[in-house]
Amino acid sequence: MQINRNALFAATAICALASQPAMAEEGMWTFDGFPAEQVREQYGWAPDQAWLDTVRNSAVRLTGGCSASFVSPDGLILTNHHCVASCLFDNSDETADYLLNGFVADRRDAELKCPGQQAEVVTMISDVTPDVIGAIGSQTGEALTKARDAKIAELEKAGCPDSETTRCQVVTLFGGGQYKLYTYRKYSDVRLAWAPEDRAATFGGDPDNFNFPRYSLDASFLRAYENGRPVATPEHLKWNPRAPEEGEITFVVGNPGSTSRLWTDSQLAFEREVRLPVTVATLSELRGRLIRAMEESKEHAREGGDMLSGIENSLKVYIGRTKALNDPAFTAKLAEAQNDLRQQVAGDSEIGDPWTTVDEAMNAYRALYYPLRFTQPSGDLYSYAQTLVFAAQERGKPNSERLPGYTDSALPLTEKQVLDERPVYPWLDELGMEWSLSKAREYLGVDDPDTKLLLGKESPEQLAERLVNGTSLADPAVRKALWDGGLEAVEASNDPMIQYALKLATRQRELKALADAQYSGPLAAAGVKLADARFAAYGDSLYPDATFTLRISYGQVKGWVERGNQVPFQTTMGGTFERATGNAPFDVAPAFAVNQTKIDKNTTYDFVTTNDIIGGNSGSPVIDRAGTVIGAAFDGNIHSLGGNYGYDGTLNRTVAVSAAAVQEALETIYPAPALVEELARR
Amino acid sequence: MQINRNALFAATAICALASQPAMAEEGMWTFDGFPAEQVREQYGWAPDQAWLDTVRNSAVRLTGGCSASFVSPDGLILTNHHCVASCLFDNSDETADYLLNGFVADRRDAELKCPGQQAEVVTMISDVTPDVIGAIGSQTGEALTKARDAKIAELEKAGCPDSETTRCQVVTLFGGGQYKLYTYRKYSDVRLAWAPEDRAATFGGDPDNFNFPRYSLDASFLRAYENGRPVATPEHLKWNPRAPEEGEITFVVGNPGSTSRLWTDSQLAFEREVRLPVTVATLSELRGRLIRAMEESKEHAREGGDMLSGIENSLKVYIGRTKALNDPAFTAKLAEAQNDLRQQVAGDSEIGDPWTTVDEAMNAYRALYYPLRFTQPSGDLYSYAQTLVFAAQERGKPNSERLPGYTDSALPLTEKQVLDERPVYPWLDELGMEWSLSKAREYLGVDDPDTKLLLGKESPEQLAERLVNGTSLADPAVRKALWDGGLEAVEASNDPMIQYALKLATRQRELKALADAQYSGPLAAAGVKLADARFAAYGDSLYPDATFTLRISYGQVKGWVERGNQVPFQTTMGGTFERATGNAPFDVAPAFAVNQTKIDKNTTYDFVTTNDIIGGNSGSPVIDRAGTVIGAAFDGNIHSLGGNYGYDGTLNRTVAVSAAAVQEALETIYPAPALVEELARR
Fold it and tell me: Which domains are present in chain A?
């Protein structure tokens, strides 16, 4: 699944460094840098500005980490089923399991509110590079990151005086080579209109994830509301439930979360040697704990499902990346590209040697990485506590001095995500906390001061149980009182989770300051030089690494050759019944079974294209030459996992569910006549 | 813990390739290659032949994967607690938990039989290199491995006509440069005399495993029996419960399981890129499943404990190896050593280019590795079935044509391990089978023919449940009937686990034949050349890679410097109480708490030496210059984990429990006056 699970941390994530000349069909292009000439050369046609404008105005970003698009004038949004799974889950209980059974709103006022969800449409992009670079001046280390973040906070606040309906975000492109201010029209009331059964979307489950041929109805419809009424969206994409044709040009428009295509050797080495091994080992253990816990009861099976699919999706991504970085043929290409760049700018005294700066920053980061990682316990309840503590502390400061997630421009979404009502399952929180605390002890060591800070004399099991059982933060009213009460209320609270978050906050700030000084600051300075190097070597028709901001990729409907065998470009709905074994996760969804004779078996189900996408693109519309929607991207094939580091057009594929299959489902399997009518309306 | 969990698979493990000049204190020396001159130079003294002979005749190998030594004339054996944990576990039930509570036999006939355990003492080593090399001749691939294995079966059978009391084993040293026939006096009735509480041995649990300073009473006593009576062992080591002195020379004598110090680049690359990642990821998930399952009930907590400690120990080893192979400074040394060897023999036409042969074999192995690994489901019950099936099939063939574990010389131990009575916990078997089958599907892929062979149309969960619930193999009488009934009984059995093992056997044989042809055969041929190269370059005073056969290492009592801080060479028993938090695994063992005031707090508890050991050395006596036992090795420090690939004398340490601490426990904590008297007897 191409969800961007890092979306919430995007602001603090490592910035991409700069870009290189793109291969044909490679590229997650910004709308102001669309390579029309390149497309025209290859396909004999390219979109004009009007085409691009309509598409851009119809494209939606979902703050949960997904992409989407408006497909009717009444705020109807197409996205993936897995992008609304949390919404279905949060609206379910033991009596009504919408995730399992799907959901069709038979009238608009039955549509389900999605906690924490917000839909955003880009309305303006302005270049603020001179402002930010000017504010940074010749500063370095922590001073650099502080000056940068202060200027960004100022620009964001000034750009969006109306924080009710707009959101401003300064985005770092080319690792600091460019800064752009994105202005969004935001809709913070997002509701669910239609979703199929979970099994229809997840047929094949984890075994088939990142696999193709595939038989998945990974689609759903949301609707944006404002003041309790559907939003009018005159700019939207036309729904076109036809089969894709082999070789036709396709565009995927969405918000790829992050890529690391321009990392230097030492960044890739850190990934391969440190981050990926610890991530795969610890997450695999969590997966095992959760799988077993879900076998304990029906309630656990239901309540743990959303978390498990997130873990398994992430693990597949990380294991795929591990394989890519352990493939000598793949890494040789990355090294070659980097060597070429170094040669192109060798002796340029303006550029100097940013590579050594990066090497030093990565060395410093190696020493900080475990403390940074493991002083962040897992669990929704701890996250609430941490956000409440930091928000209370940060709001007392001037806007320009606050941490990135707590500036005036960022606070509204932070507040919404803390205060929205959603169910908490204490056993799940306890499981996650116990796991993360025991891994902290394992990786930091028993005698490490951070382990002692985390555990005191308690065991991970005891501490997790005491905090989860003792806290009242599952109650949104309690969270609201603490949010509204500010620092005084937070410091006076005797909630053990709040006290724990307060205790950890000092060390977390200290570690962030160290990372800013030794890692983020030097990396930002080197990023500017590396971007200069790239522009000097290859000109400025480059695409930046992904940053969970709007991009467009072009490609075509096309299979690939897997170990000598041609993989067809599409599947049909009838194939589901052939692949089914009767056993989970290869059991046919009940409504598919019931309607087996009615379903048009020849309907194109899923298809693959050469578009260059990554996690965060989930739910992106697949658009044809006419600008109409013929599918929704929901996955990549297994080769796409190395796409984080580099695009290989012979193997890397986007996997999409066809609009034709969604239409068949709307008409025959999960009937929604009102939506059928709405989608057909001009 | 330095147990050799691969002991049972040693016959089919990759053979080490050849040796290089040893660094001071580096080396797991064979007794016929002891570097007396080197020791004399360094310590001004070296053991003479009589010293070496007594030590060799007192050294015991335990077939469970450990080392030990005779320490009285009545067959009393010193080893680690963790080497007898399975024995304690197998003798326990819900009413008597010897693993938790420890065990002291108040008279000899109360000593507890250890299922599957056998004690072995080397009585003769003869060089059979010419016989085996002659039989191989100029053959290659599968023909080579068949000819080699046939000759080995013949030599082993001829060497040990009395299979009741002797065992013969041909060992491959220097990757095929040498073949030696080891003759053992064997004792297949091994009983437990004394063991402390589990928490006394495992204080600090997994967090402190491979850690130091350490506070662990990881010691126990077994006794060898024959015809129902203790074995007379006039040759034994003198027990010497004194404190070790810093800087004194120490010898560790035992059976290091396997090392990979002489692997070529492509073997190390395979380890780093393929085997370690899949092993850590899958085993971490199993760990998580088991941790959660053990939290479900007291029974599960008890029944899963032995398996969990094995998994956690293995994981720590594999994660430590991953770190070592991801440490550029460490791997640079390995590469340098390899380059030196290649340069030394460059242009030697007799040696040619075995490195390329190894590269090709490793490439072939990459394609075979997942199928080989994942067509072996986990679980005791499946293992019984598989052994019964293979034994029935192999016993029908001439000795020289059988698979290694089923030759006349190997069958007695194989039979003992299948037929000995020991408890089976079906939930544990189901958990392990479900896990391994789901990992097979994940790594091989849903559409792989091997996945289809393993699962048919069933899910991993269904299949594991059906096989475990349906089989009768937990009953030793059923296993005996099938063993005695041979192929006819096995093929006629309607036991679903037997039927499943029969179904898989064909494919397992096919994969083994492919691996022999493309991997083991070429590697064996290259091994001879690489050994020749090493002998040509560095002479013949080399030590071979470890092979779970008797070795001696020398070193000294010595701490080390950890990130600028001196780690002391010993701990005292009183330190336990200072480190204790009251919470598992840092809770003091009950008998320690009760006897806190009586225990002499200044007694040396654990200590470290520079001896070069590895898994399989667990339980090895630590011997002083006088030839007396002053401790039992039970672990290495965290830096010892890279010792699989290379020894670093500045950091790598053996961890031992002192004889003084064991004596204190025998006198004060778990009183065993008869043993105290027996150990003091001359």
Answer: 7-118+188-260+545-680 (2.40.10.120), 265-538 (no CATH)
